[in-house]
Amino acid sequence: MSGSTSNGSTSKPTVDARQERDLKRALATLWVRFPGSLEDAYIVHALRRARKLIGRSLYVLIVLFLAVTLPVLVFVDDSYLASWRLYGFWPIAGALALLFLAVKVDALNRFMSTLIGMALMISLAGTLLGAIKLAGTFLGQVAAFETVYVLIIGFSILRLPPTRTLFWCLGSLVLALTLALVLGWSVDPAALLLFYGFPLVVCALNGYMLDASARHSYANTLLLNRESDRLRQWRDNADREARRQALLNDFMAHIAGNPRVAVLLDQALAFMIEHGPAMAGAAYRVDDDGLHREAARGLNAEARREGRVERDGLLAGALDAEGAVTVCHDVPAGYLDLETGQSVIRPGHLLFLTIRQGDEALGVVELASLEPFDQDARTLLEALAAPLAYALVAAMGREDYIRRHRQAG
């Protein structure tokens, strides 16, 4: 998966092309099951959603619990009231305390699913034991109704993944029946089916349907985010291309006017420094006997005095390279130092833009920067190489014509 989601994060993961196809196939199934890491990401999302829902409804659950139990405690005078409190009151009160710890104590975040499941199992086991022990009495009916309420809350409000909820519910049934058999209580299978078996099936089916709906919504959200990212990328590419074309037009206007070679390269160098991360640079024309520096900006005095340089070292490597742009991240000491005020700074990065006509190298522009040249800067400079090459050929042709004309005259 391209991005990940943590319990404390509200952002959804991004998906790649393969996962996008998997999501579309999953949407065509009944229960919308995801493959691989998509399923893991959904479980994390479901647990985060459960924590949020319980946090919002916890006090409502407490009020509902008190609304059911307080009238029984106050108005019912029954010899079995102490037994009902043991099985129908305190287990649910303890379950609500566990829910409070699960959603309100951040240190217990990693145990949240287990705490919620234990709260569900404890409350269900208690009400089941109460309904079994007090069968045939009013308080036994109250415990049976409490069992149904807890099942509804477990699958519809707590909203853990339904398989986990079903596991804890079946665990409570096993625990309650085991204790009832150990204690020698009689269990009426028909009554157990009425207040636990059938409600469990209905609530579980409802829970799976709610989960399928939530999965459907989750998958659609991921697909919409994927489409939004794709549209945003297309828009960014279009904006980047528009900016590149605008800068290219500005550059061609900047070097227009049939200037001499030195003026042309100085104008090109100034434009590249102004519209990029470079702080200084130099422009060279290729001659038969080496390289002649035609323009320089931001260099120290010693570097500016070198009008002609040998075709070797980094410059030779740039001229011999296949691409128009060559980048150097390891600048030798004393090479193309920058002059800022009263100090001299060693550049951290160099970029060489080779100006070619076909396979012939006409010149090279050398740019120095303290920061790396990013991909956008490299792409822009590479786009400037072609029009600069045409302008340089024209300028060199004019200078050659003028020189030959003067020699002939």
From TrEMBL:
For this chain, one GO molecular function annotation is: kinase activity
Report keywords, A-Z: Kinase, Membrane, Transferase, Transmembrane, Transmembrane helix
Pfam families in the record, alphabetically? GAF_2
Transmembrane region(s): 58-76, 82-103, 115-132, 138-158, 165-185, 191-210
- Domain GAF, by residue range, is 263-392
Q: Which InterPro entries match?
A: GAF (IPR003018), GAF-like_dom_sf (IPR029016)
Organism's domain of life? Bacteria
The name on file for this protein is Sensor histidine kinase/response regulator
- What is the species of this protein? Alloalcanivorax profundimaris
